[in-house]
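Write out structure tokens for Putative ligand-gated ion channel.
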Amino acid sequence: SNSGGYISRRCSASLRREPPPNIPGRIVLAVWWLTVVVLMNAFTGHMEATMLIRPEPQRIDSVKALTTHPNMRTLVWKGSAFEALFKNSKDVEEYQAVWKMVERSNGTYETNALYSLNNLRSVLHGKTVIVGEITTMRYHVSQASRLFRNASFYFAKEQFFPHKFAIALRKGTNTSFLDFLNKRINWVVESGLFQAWINKEYGRLDSRRSSVRPPTKPSLPSSIFEVQSVFYIYLMFTAISVAAILLEVVSVVNLKCNKKPGRVVKINVVADFISQQNDKTATFKGGNSRRHLDYRNKLARRALPHPETSPIFRRFGSSNKHMEKYRPIIL
């Protein structure tokens, strides 16, 4: 009942406009506002981030990873070296599995049909994979990226079929011409001219969030652990307020224990009046000395407060008919 009354009094006091008079109350009030304002903003930001951030789908960065999705629609450039690689590689299980996926989905297309809008939209939905040459891919994706403003394409990290150029030639082509062509291709690539041309032509592709750079750590949905620092601040202020309240309680208890009660001096005064004509003289019983009376009066004055602030009047009466007045004695 006492705790309930205390809580009700605190709640009613919190409705006032005036701040608490003591320091612990102010600290508790500050912690309360910290809870209401800061934590509310933190949860609001966390909710907005959770709603806006969309987790990326599982990436496919290698041929082996592609084989773990047997229902994935796989498209290959028809008549290219990739089709020949998957079709004729009898000793590599991954290539054979990919070729079966291509045959199951009838995924051999010409260049214009391979990078159609329907196929690119299917790639965005995570239902289709296109296997082709990187330069051609970057060109077609850059052309179609303006149609998919909120789209995000990515290229696999593994280049399972490394080549500098892919050129279709007749089997009867002159060998001397082939040697000259290969030497010129190697010179263009090794000198960096080919990469400079790629960067110049497809440099805007990075702004469209399509790049051949190794992907960074995929963004995960925001969790409660990302705002745990706010809880640490809240707990810190709560501990400070509790410590201040306990310190105040302990100090009050120590003050009450150390407070000594005031010393009380009891003085028993027995007085009588002796009538001698018209003079009235106050004397203590058992004492005829004036010096003894003054000594006792001094002790009484030292033990009691100042007479001007708290006077004590004692009136002594007599049965003598001549004593019509009373003499007050101030102790």
